[in-house]
């Protein structure tokens, strides 16, 4: 349901100038009933000037009269032909000047981690042009060496729900065309809510990497080599010195 512009100021005017109950006003302006009650008590929207919905072509006097006569009547926004189709405006969205320098980083992130997105989808998500996206794809952008990929959601260029919707739409189109997706591409299609609910994959600590293939059973050839070096199963054989070593020590002691 469409909501009026300047919702809080409209609620202030309706509280001050009508006898419509809080529930009706809250449903009309898209606020909570307690917040509307706070406006009436003077705790909320202090200093906010009321916005007349009749003078601004949002409500009719007949609609207000009907709501005052029937507590269950729901206010309906006045039909405005000039406002039709505003939600379906095409083309890239407006990006504030303070965030325009972050667009190349977000484009590189989308191109790298979501290659299934089309140039048109990326253009709508971050508010850029197709030549810029193409330049980053082909790495011919004038500043490509200094651009680091950054999530556009983290930069505030789009919402996570918008990104998820675009990715899901691209996946559906790809599946419809009969293209087989790799496991890595399919993993990227999981939404934020689903990914946060997944169990973390067990990881092997770096200190013991490679030990998963270690076995205690030795090789037969290695066992034979060990047997050739000597049998040290008893103490006498272990402390027996090699031939000639004892005689050399005695000769040196006699000379001294």
TrEMBL record:
Q: Where is this region: Disordered?
A: 192-256
Output compositional bias ranges, type Acidic residues.
Answer: 246-256
InterPro entries from the UniProt entry:
TrcR
Matching entries from Pfam families are given as: TrcR
Please report the name of this protein according to its UniProt entry: DUF1013 domain-containing protein
Q: Which organism is it from?
A: Sulfitobacter aestuariivivens
């Amino acid at each position: 349901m469409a909501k009026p512009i300047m919702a809080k100021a409209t609620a202030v005017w309706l509280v001050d100038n009508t006898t419509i109950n809080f529930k009706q006003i809250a449903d009309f302006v898209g606020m909570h009933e307690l917040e509307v009650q706070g406006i009436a008590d003077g705790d909320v929207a202090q200093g906010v000037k009321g916005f007349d919905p009749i003078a601004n072509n949002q409500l009719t006097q007949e609609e207000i009269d009907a709501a005052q006569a029937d507590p269950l009547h729901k206010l309906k926004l006045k039909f405005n032909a000039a406002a039709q189709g505003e939600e379906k405006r095409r083309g890239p969205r407006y990006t504030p000047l303070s965030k325009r320098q972050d667009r190349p980083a977000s484009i590189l992130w989308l191109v790298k981690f979501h290659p299934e997105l089309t140039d048109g989808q990326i253009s709508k998500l971050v508010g850029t042009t197709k030549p810029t996206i193409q330049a980053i794809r082909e790495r011919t952008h004038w500043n490509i060496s200094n651009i680091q990929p950054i999530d556009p959601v983290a930069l505030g260029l789009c919402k996570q729900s918008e990104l998820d919707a675009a990715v899901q739409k691209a996946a559906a189109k790809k599946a419809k065309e009969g293209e087989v997706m790799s496991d890595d591409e399919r993993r990227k299609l999981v939404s934020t809510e689903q990914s946060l609910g997944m169990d973390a994959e067990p990881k092997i600590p770096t200190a013991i990497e490679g030990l998963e293939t270690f076995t205690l059973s030795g090789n037969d050839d290695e066992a034979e080599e060990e047997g050739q070096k000597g049998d040290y199963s008893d103490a006498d054989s272990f402390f027996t010195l090699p031939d000639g070593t004892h005689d050399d020590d005695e000769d040196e002691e006699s000379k001294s």
